[in-house]
Amino acid sequence: MEINKNGQTSARSEPLCSLREKQLLLISLARITFLSLAEKLILLKKLDSSDDLALLSLTDLSEICRRPLEKAVWNGEENLRMAKREEAVVRAKNIQIVPYAASEYPALLRECVNAPFALFCMGDISCLSGKTVSVVGTRRIAPEARKAAVQFAYDAVSDGVIVVSGLAYGVDSAAHSGAVKACLDAADSSSYGKTCAVLPCGIDTIVPYANRKLAENILRSGGAIVSEYVPGIPAERWRFVQRNRIIAALSPATLVVQAPCGSGSLITADFALECGRDVLFHKAAFSENACSVRNLVESELQAKFAMGKAGSKLKPGMFGRVELNLGRADAILVSDKAVLKQAGSNERYVYTEKNGTVEYRKVEIGRRFNDKYEILSGISSGENVVITGQSKLLDGSKVNVIK
Question: Are 119 and 228 in contact (CB under 8 A)?
Answer without folding.
Answer: yes
